[in-house]
Amino acid sequence: MSKWQRVTTAHQSISFSRRMMFVGGAQAAFGALLAGRMAWLSVAQNAKYALMSESNRVQLIPVPPRRGWIVDRNGKPIAINRSSFRVDLIPQQIVDRAKLVPALASILKLPPDEVDRINSELDQARGFQPVSVADNIPYEQYATITVRLPELPGVAASRGFARYYPGGSTVGQLVGYVGTANAKEYEKESKNPLLIIPGVKIGKEGLEKTMEMTLRGQPGGQRVEVTARGKLVKELDPKPDRSGGSVKLTIDSDLHQYAARRIGDQSGSVVVLDVQNGDILAMPSMPSFDPNNFSDGISRNEWKMLSENDHLPLVDKVTESLYPSGSTIKPLMSLALLQAGINPAEHVFCAGSYRVGNAIFHCDKHHGSLAMADAIMRSCDIYFYEMARRAGIEVIAPMAKRMGFGEKFDLPFSSQRFGTVPDPEWLMRRYHRKWEIYDTVNMSIGQGNVLVNPLQLAIMAGRIASGREIRPRLIANQRGAPGAPLQVTPDHLEFVRQAMGGVVNGGGTAAAAKLPLDNVQMAGKTGTAQVRRISMAERNSGGVRSNESLNWKVRDHSLFVAFAPVENPRYCAAAVIEHGGFGAAVAAPLIRDTMTFLFDRPKAMAALDVFEASIGGPLDQRLAAKTAAWRQANGLPLKDNKA
Amino acid sequence: MIGSAIIPRPLAKLPWRLIFMVTGISLFGLVVLYSAAGGSMSPWATKQAIVFIVFLALAVSMSWLSEATIKAATFPIYAAILAMLLGVEALGLVSKGAQRWLELGPVRLQPSEFMKPAIVLTLARFYELLPASEIRRWRAIWPALALLGVPAVLILVQPDLGTCIMVLLCGITVMFLAGLPLWIFVGSGIALAAAAPIAFSFMHDYQRKRVLIFLDPESDPLGAGYHISQSKIAIGSGGIWGKGFLQGSQSHLDYLPEGHTDFVFATMAEEWGLFGGILLILAFGMVVRWGMQVSANSKSRFAQLTAAGLSATIFFYVTINLMMVMGLAPVVGVPLPLVSFGGSAVMTIMLCLGILMALERQQRTQSRIA
C-alpha cells in the first residue's frame, strides 16, 4: 500500500485548508474579473454605450418640409401649397384595432380596398412610423375625427399641405405633377426616410421633377423620448424644418393662360419669348392634364381618358413634338440665299409647278413672276425651289442650324426632342444615299427631313428679330447670356424682317393676323406642314382635296412664327396647331390674339371671349362636358367614388 | 457580536455584521426596484421588502438549530426534495408542458430551489460519514455522483439550465473540498471541454440560441441578443457615477428587458454607475467571505464542508448573474439574490445564511465550553 492510499484525518485537514485557499482565491479572482469587466464597460467603453443609450432614448419623428413655390416672373403663383387635412394611425398606440379601423372607415367613408391597404400596412408597420389612413379629407370629416380622438387611441388627425396649381390644366405640361414616392424612387435615393413620411410628395414629371432638389427643402423633426414599445414619453426641443426654395420662372402666367385658352379645343402649342434675352413668357401645350388631379393619385379612369385622347394631353408639344417646319423656314432660307449672293430683286416665274429631273414639285398657286420679298410674303414655293437649287445645301443647312433648327437647349425638362436639319453628311449616315438636287428643293420649303419643335421655331423668329443668338430661358434666377450677334449681315436681316412684316401687313398670306392696334405692327410667316403624300392621281382628278374633307389625323399642321413690333422687335412667338389646316387660317390668328394680349389686354380678352363663346364656353366648362361625354361613352358613372 | 448590557443576550449573540451586510444589500435592492418601477413602491419594492423581512426572520430563527439536528434532517430532506422533483416531472408529463413548481394550496413550491442548499448538506453529510482513508477510492465518488447527478438531471429536463448548473457547481465544490483526488476534476474539466460540442447538439433550440448569442451578441441585436446588448448598454452608459437615481433611461423606457428581475444589476449600474456596482460586488464578497470564515473555523468536517458549500452557493448565484448581465456568460436565467425581485432566490440565500448562522453560533458556544 502506498502512502497515498492511507489518507488520515490529519491529511484531510491539511488538504481541506489548501483547497479552501484555492476556492477562496478563485472566488476573489472572479470578483476582480467582474469588477474589471464592469470598469471596462462603464469607463473604457462609456462613450460608445452612452451614445447607444441616447439613440435608444431619443427618436426623431420627421416633419416634412413645405415644398417650395413655383412662381411666374411677376411672383404670381403657379404651384403653391394649400392646407389639407389628413388622418394617420400610430400603430403602437392602437388599443383595439379590430374596432378602430371599421370606425374610421365609417367616418371617412373608406372603400373596402382602402381598408385592406390600411390593414396590410398596419401588419407591416414597425415602431412609431405612422400609417396613412386618408389624405385631403373634407374639413367636416377632419372635425369629426378630432372630436372623437379620445375614443380613438392611435389615430392622429393633422393638417398638412397639398400641392395646388391655380392654373389647372393650362400649366399641366409646364410644371408636371407631384405624387407619393414609389419603391423604386425610394431605393434610388438610398432609402431617404423623408420619402416615406405620409403626405410627402415628390416631383414626378416636368418642373416638379427636374427642380425637385430646390423645391424639396430640409425635413425637420420632432425629437421625442420614446419607450422600447414606441410609447411617447415627452417631447424634446424640435429640430426645425427648412422649407423648399421657390423657383421663379420667366413665364408670364397671365399670358401663358391666355395663350392656353386661345388654343381652344385644338391640339397644339404656343411659345412666346422675349427677344432681348430669350425668356420664355408662355409655352402652353394643349390639351393638357390638370396636375391638381395627380397630387392625390389619379384614378384609373382619368388616366385612361388622358392616354386614349388623340390630342395627346400627356405630351408637352412645345419641346417633345417635332413637325416639318413647312414654309416657316422661308425667312431663314432667304437669309441663306442672300448670303449665297443671290440678288433679292431677281425674279422667278411661278407657273404652279417645277421640274427636277423626273419629279415635279408644286406650288399651291400660280404666282407669276416674283422677287424675294414677294416670294416670302405670298409664300411662293417655286421661287425657293429655284433659288435654293442655285444657292446649294452648303449654305442652307448651316443657316438653318444658326437659326436654332436642330439645336439642343438646356431647359429643365427631362424629355426634349430636338429634330433634324438634313445635310449630305446626315443623309449618308442615316439613309446611306447621296444628297440630290430634289433634297435641296424639298428642304427649301421645310419639308422632307426637316423636323423642328415649336420652341426652335420661336427661337428662329427671335434670332431674326434681334440679330442675336438668343437661347430660351425658363428659370428666372439663372443668369441668361444675352447672346452673341448672329453671323449674318445686318442688312440681310433687315430685308427679311421687312418681308415678314409684309406677310402680315403688306397683303401677304397672313393678312388676317394683322394686330388690331394702331401703333404696333407684327411680322410673321405662315407655314403648312404636309402630313400625307399627295398623289399624282389626286392632283390630276380635279385638284388637291381640301383639309376639311380629310380625316383630322391626316390634315396638315398649321404653323405660324412671328415677332412684334416690326421695328425694334420685343417679342417673338411660334404656334403649331396639329392638323389645323393652313397656317394662315388657324395658327396666325392665334398668335395675333396672343401678341395683342402683350400690348392691349382688354382688347385681347374681348377677342378671347368671342372665341370661347364660339367653341362652347370657357376651358373648365368644356373640359367637364368632355369628361362627362367620355364617361358616358365608356359606360362609367359621372364621378369616380374615389376616397 | 455587540457587547452591551442593555441588549438582551440572545440578540447580542447574533452575527450582526452579517445581518447588517445582508440588510444593506437588500435595502439597496429595494431602492433599485423602487426606481425600476418608475419611482414607486409598487408593484415590486413593497412585496420584496416583506419577502426579505419574512425570510430574514426565518434565517435568524434557524440560527438556533443545532448541528446535530441539521445532520439528522439532511438525508430525509434530500429524499423529500428529490421526491418533489420527481413529482414536478410527473406533473409536467401529465400537463404536457414545462413544469418547475408544485402548487400546495396557496404556496407555490419550486423544489429545484431547495436543492441548492440541500445538495451541499447531503454531500457534506456523505463525506463526513465516509472514513478518511476511503477518500481516494471509487467508493468516495460514485455515491456522490449519484446524489448529485439524479437531481441535476431532473432539473435539467424541467428544463432549467441555470439551476442545474448552480446545483452541479455547488456539489462539485463540496466534492473538491472533501479532498477527492485532483485528477478527477482536471480530467473531468478536459472531458467536459471535449464534450461541449456534443452537449450543444442535445440542447433545446432556445438554449442553443442563447449560447450562440452569448458568443456574438451583436449578431442579433433586435432579436435574441437583445437582452445582452441592452444590458451592456445600460451598464456601459452608466459611467463611473451613474446617471443618477431615477434617471436611468434604459430601464425607465423599457429598453432593458427583465430590468427588475434577472437584469436588475444593469438597472442599478445605469443609475449608480461603476461606483454602485463595485459597492455591491464588495458587499457580496464580504458575505461570501464571512461564510468561508465560518467554514474555516468549523471543527467538524460536516460543518466545514457545509459552510464552504453554502458560501459557494451564494457566490455562484451572484457570479453567474453578474457574468450573464455583463456579457461574460450566456443568459441562463439566474437572478441576483437579495436584489432581483422574486421570493425564491431570497429564500435560498436565507436558508443558506440560516444554516451558516447556526453553524457559526455552534462554533462560539463550543469554543466557550472548550
Structure overview:
The complex is a heterodimer of chains A (643) and B (370). Chain A is of the alpha+beta class. Chain A is built from 24 helices and 20 strands. In chain A, the strands form six sheets. In chain A, strands 11, 12, 13, 18, 19 and 20 form a six-stranded antiparallel β-sheet that branches. In chain A, strands 2, 3, 4, 5 and 10 form a five-stranded mixed β-sheet that branches. In chain A, 43% of the residues are buried. Chain B has one domain. By secondary structure, chain B is mostly helical. The chains are: A alpha+beta (643), B mainly alpha (370).
**Would you tell me the structural class of the helices and strands of chain B?**
mainly alpha
Radius of gyration of chain A: 36 Å
Question: Roughly what percent helix of chain A?
Answer: 25-40%
Distance from first to last alpha carbon of chain A: 99 Å
Task: Report on the biggest sheet of chain A.
Answer: 6 strands, antiparallel
Q: Mean pLDDT of chain B, rounded to whole units?
A: 88
How many structurally independent domains of chain B?
Answer: 1
The DSSP helix count of chain B reads 14
For the secondary structure, the number of strands of chain B is 2
What share of the residues of chain B lie within helices? Answer: over 70%
Please report the first level of CATH classification, the CATH class of the largest domain in chain A: Alpha Beta
How far do the termini of chain B sit from each other?
19 Å
Sequence stretches where pLDDT stays below 50 over 5 or more residues of chain A:
none
Shape of chain A: elongated
Mean pLDDT of chain A: 86
How many beta strands in the DSSP annotation of chain A? Answer: 20
Secondary-structure element string of chain B: HHHHEEHHHHHHHHHH
Second-tier CATH architecture of the largest domain in chain A: 3-Layer(aba) Sandwich
Task: Quickly list its features.
heterodimer; A: 643 residues; alpha+beta; Penicillin-binding protein 2a (Domain 2); Beta-lactamase; 2 domains; six-stranded antiparallel sheet; five-stranded mixed sheet; 40% helix; 16% strand; B: 370 residues; mainly alpha; two-stranded antiparallel ribbon; 70% helix; globular
